[in-house]
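Dear support,

I submitted the protein below through the web form. The confirmation email said the job was done, but the results page showed an empty box. After a refresh the structure appeared. I'm attaching both so you can tell me whether what I see now is the final result or a partial one.
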Amino acid sequence: MKRRLAAMVVLVSLVTLVAPARAAFENLMTSPRARAMGDASVAVDDATFAATLNPAQLARLATDGEVGVSYVQPYSLDFHRLYYLGAALRLPGEAGSLGLGFRQYGVEYQNVDLQTESTLTVAYGLPLYADVHSRINLGVGLNLYRLEFGETVSGLDPGSDLTTGLDVGFAATLHDRTHMGVLVHNVNAPKIGRDEEELPRRLQAGLAYEPYAGVLTVFELENVHGEDPQWHAGMEFDVLEGLVLRAGLITRPNKLTAGFGYRFGEAALSYGFSTGGGVLESTHQFGLSWAWGGE
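What the results page shows now:
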């Protein structure tokens, strides 16, 4: 058993060499829709995931409420996985909307949890300005991070730690066709652990254009503090009633993405795919959501 655990640690180390350098609580995409469109997320409505993608989008919630889940094994490696549960609820009148998101990423081998990252996000989106041509929204999200490590091969328990981070988002719409979004993630520069590892700070700015109903294109710039900028681009178009196709691309590393969404009544199924960007395998992500009330 100990030899197998040691081999697992070596395998995880090799993966981190061929993949981008990984810090705790890095930006693993939670939304299948965003993944299918090149991970572009801050300028696009995605209510179930808005608490973590851009809380300002909560203020544009078109229904009374929505809940959803997603699941993914990054790079199709079965020793780690990401779960997400999210919800959005519209408040009465012009009071905005509340959002909730729970994200858990874990590395596991033979029923032994080597590392678990849990994030609980409580968010609020508020409309700041609206007229017949434009809207401007503000959003804030409070993240509670918990990092846990499993017992080592030698029997040492590394323990766990907690910290909090603050997100601030903006969203604007012009003539119901042009959408803009900005997210500042971990604006308070949170740190975790005895060595005070700084959690990733991230700035994202995106632009989405909808020339007519059923067609959407989106471009986004992502800049993680201390790293090179990354570009995201994607598109979405209706092909049949209830069926939407999506495609996109990502730079640094270069990846191609695709997927679909299918709505049946108040429920919706989403699938997102992205290539590995090198020697790693592709990633497949699935999500299911349910909305009620509203449009």
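Response: this is the final, complete result; the empty box was a page-load delay. Residues 1-21 have pLDDT under 50 and may be disordered.
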